[in-house]
Amino acid sequence: MLRRTRLHYALIAIASVSASLPAAAQVAPGPGVNPRAVWSEPPERFTTRVLASGLEDPWEVTYGADGYLWVTERVGKRVLRIDPADGTRTVVATIDEVVQRLGQDGLLGLALHPDFPAGSDYVYVMYTYDADPGPDEVRRAKIRRYRFDAEAERLEQPVDILTDLPHGPDHGASRIVFGLDGKLYASRGDHGANFLAYYCEPIRSQELPVAADIARGDWRGYEGKILRINEDGSIPDDNPVLNGVRSHVFSYGHRNPQGMAFGPDGTLYAAEHGQDTDDEVNRIVAGGNYGWPLIAGFKDDQYYTYANWSASSPTPCRDLPYGREVPDTVPRIKESEVDLPDFVPPLATFFTVPSTHDARSMGNATAALSGLDVYASPGIPGWNPSILVTSLMSGTIYRIPLDAADAQPLTYFKAQNRYRDLAISPDGLRIYAVTTSLGRTLTATGETTAELEHPGSLLEFTYIGTN
């Protein structure tokens, strides 16, 4: 059984926090240290190659059993099939229906059928669209299935299998992946509610759909959830019954789970963004509650306290300026005040800091985790089994060894890149990563920068040995 681990700061100053916490939680950054700027120097050596550049904000990369890399362009609205040998790319679909206006909408997730390509030619994508045929835009998400015509190298015969999924202006998640059970899993975010420009919108990650919603196909209760779906979009008969209702919901209490992957034993892992602290890597179980927004990371009463801006009274939220200083009219709930019987703690958090952490001087203690994959190959010595997870803000890919309970995650491929997603070659010797076209990351010395080294690119890291 896997034990909980935390990414802590072994090389920087130690601050004293509550002795009642797990030992790994008792380490925090010293004054003036950006907690995201903590990088290791692992012994493995890799070469780096730019396999493709000039991509229009790639979001997904998947290594297909056909021997090609499948990439979605969030802004470009295209599905690309790229030859890993020489980077030759083919546009297999341009989906004009895709609506892309903001930072987390557009053409997003992609999943190949488990029997692709020998037994099935199905390819699934997830994207945002306008559900209102009139002048007012109503942003929703859908999952669509295509058939891949290998001779013509085109995706054809589109069939919408699940439509009208809620999708807000932020925190859209939308990773899709097939499980060993043949079911399709899809992640949904909390729409950026209770945060920044959308601070007066209530977070619904703890709300569960009711029977009447499911009967009429109203999926509003799917915010902040991971869904489990039959190939045709219907609800599996063995999905968990939550609050007396069986729906597509497999787990709940999520903020923005942008990474999902299955291990070879059928375990589902997910990575999601924290707010100011506590990006999470989770092991997803049926019916599990992952705490958001009542709990961030572990239930430890550290830096995070839930401030419910939408419930401000008597001053309504719309009359309040949003900021780090929370007005007295906004209800606040400590993690220790919450009783969630089905709460599932994370496997790891990036980063947990004490209540004394000063975000103004040290920055938010998050890495903005995005894509995730499970390394289960003998290719690189000592890596099997591990979780690999990309970071937008730290410009690294993290490795979490799953067979070493006390080992701290290691960092690889540090550069001024925003790594969105990754894929692993079948032999385990090459790791592929796509990078965003715009945004901020960290320099080698820990300063924030918008100057990206490889914007909108597909990179290949090839293992060449260990020191």
Would you kindly provide a written description of the structure presented here, covering whatever features stand out?
This protein has 467 residues and is an all-beta fold. It has one domain: Neuraminidase (6 Propeller). The chain has helices spanning 211-215, 359-362, and strands at 44-52, 58-63, 69-73, 78-82, 89-94, 107-112, 122-130, 139-149, 154-166, 173-178, 184-188, 225-229, 241-242, 245-246, 249-252, 257-262, 268-272, 279-284, 306-307, 332-333, 348-350, 369-375, 386-391, 397-401, 410-412, 419-424, 430-435, 441-442, 448-449, 458-466. A 4-stranded antiparallel β-sheet has the order 1-30-27-26, with no helix packed on it. A 4-stranded antiparallel β-sheet has the order 2-3-4-5, with no helix packed on it. A 4-stranded antiparallel β-sheet has the order 6-7-8-9, with no helix packed on it. A hairpin with a 4-residue loop joins strand 3 (69-73) and strand 4. It is globular. The protein starts with 43 loop residues before the first strand and ends with a strand.
